[in-house]
Predict the structure.
Amino acid sequence: MPTRRRAALVLSALALLGGGSFVVALAVGSFSVPLADVVGALVGEPVEHAAIVRDLRLPRALAGFACGGLLALAGALMQVLLRNPLADPYVLGISGGAGVGAMLAILLGLATAGINGFAFLGALGAMLIVFGLAHGDGAWTQTRLLLTGVIVAAGCGALVALMLSIAPEHKLRGMLFWLMGDLSQTGAPWIALAILAAALAAALPFARELNLLARGQDTAQALGVDVKRLRYAVYAIASLVTAVAVTSAGSIGFVGLVVPHLVRLAIGNDQRLLLPASVLAGGALLTFADTLARTVVAPQQLPVGVLTALIGVPVFLFLLARHRQ
Amino acid sequence: MSAQPLPLIEARGLAVSVGGHTVCRDLDFSLAAGERLAILGRNGAGKSTLLSVLAGLRPADAGEVGLGGETYAALGPRAAAKRRGWLPQRHSDAFASTVLETALTGRHPHLGRWDWETKRDAEIARGAIAAVGLAGMEARDVQTLSGGERQRLAIATLLTQAAPLYLLDEPLAHLDLNHQIAVLDLFAGAARDCHAGLVMVLHEPGLADRYCDRALLVHGDGRCELGACRELLTADRLGELYGHPLRQVESDGRRWFIPA
């Protein structure tokens, strides 16, 4: 039976994990910084490597945490909205739209701000197209939404492939890194963190209604949920959250799919606990993965999306095999 | 002070259609506390569609449905959920969940936005689970239940919701004979002792005759007949309703209808 006390325990444990991921992210790298110096740098003491910790590693760790949290939150919401445990934040074509925008910006030779702006506009465009097409005559079934999203995503994939094939050689690497998901180019992590906090705060009051929505629209409506309004709100929040994550770090795979799934297996499907727990677990996972990505073949950096996919694929297959039994 | 108590549910001039065929036009009826109504008709006649219109889950083509004198639009979904419970015909569980958690969802309309279920809510849910014979299975995953067990859990959830009006879409689906009678006895008891109202879609006219006061025959071509079971349920009329000749047999003072 779900209780507040259990929720507090689980969330405290995950918050510790998140804190741990920060400590590792700040201490580990091409320069190893001792723990005491990490703490010193954070509180503003003039210790050795303070600049590395404060100006390089901290913003990147924050961006990683924010993106991981955003993706996990979006994934958990999409899974409820589509009543499909295999849905992820990208299934409705939002990352595809962002990809088209970002590729176009890189082709045009825009700077980071331009790429981010175009990516966000692309994500919004895809979101509106999918919503408009799926909503159409008002019949808003999960299958129709899912199919529309998958088709729009496929269309975006084709456009991305087209741009990649006509792109000049020297721009290809940047384009590929963006597509695979990369945290080295993220600016302003505080914005993403603030949006993460706002989205979680907006979703939590409806968490018990989401529990009912996961059991079916009519069932939820009969038990007192304003299903139509709730679905609009969930679609809007999940899409915007995905757009922000993709805009700041490209399409990092599998976090949005696997994290809510793992958390659900561990603690059950009560959204009051699942949503905040997914945010913390997703944030911690991506921060760890990014630390690995920049240390495993240092000084060279891997795109973090490659690592999350490498971790995510076997975990997901394992879950799928278990699911079938 | 002698105002007539408002009916639990009332339909006025109700017109319903589904997939281009008319289920009913200009249907009027009302159900008072303690009354039991059976909806009978062939497959595809639109019984479930009519019931979901009565439950406020889909719009009517014309006319109004009122719960205690107020329309669904005026009540809002939450207040409506305290006045009527609806048992769906099919149950699909996309995610794992325990039996107890599932039954507890019935408490949703009674809880505030930030409330968590209390011990009292859990007691109500456990009582309902026991009432449908699932005691001891509280921790089972719903995805592992058999069809009949899942159906009884849905009924337990409905009891947990504790609304004074039950709208039941095939409450006997998947149930074996002993559970069919147990479930009907349970709801008949709620009608008798707690003055609950019952509207249920049934496939067995004999059970309708035994457990309901009135019947609504949905012919599927827009014609609906409403009347007391005793008078309305005859072999001739039911034979026409189902498109197959029926014969009435009597046993222990109860009437049953068997295919000729």
